[in-house]
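Wed. Picked up where I left off yesterday with Alternative ribosome rescue aminoacyl-tRNA hydrolase ArfB. The coffee machine is broken again, so keeping this brief.
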Amino acid sequence: MLPLSNAVSLADDEIEIHQIRAQGAGGQNVNKVASAVHLRFDIQASRLPPYYKECLLALRDSRITKDGVIVIKAQNHRTFEANRDDALARLQALIRDAVKPRKARRPTKPSRAARKRRVDSKTQRGRTKALRGKVM
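Structure written out below (tokens, as returned):
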């Protein structure tokens, strides 16, 4: 079970974890041992609450495919267990971040004094540039 909040958690059978060989340099060991992890989580087929599914599918993240499958590849560590824990932690963080309520943006206006300062500085800048002209 992967806990997401006090009331919501993911069952282990909803997450597919496959061992793969890690890419990149690493000496002889990297060519023999499949220590990297390929994690797949199908949002639509999961037993998550509808609100969680909506938030996840609305995310613009490269790890989420068009079919609604989250794909995470973890290969930073030397052991399969450490990479698996890393992939699960990243999945947990992605889901928690997706459902976190966003603060509503309130549009603001500049104050009258700020507008006056802006216009005055523009006027001053114009005078400075006018003084650069040729003297008659």
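Quick read: Residues 2-99 form a domain with the Double Stranded RNA Binding Domain fold (CATH 3.30.160.20).
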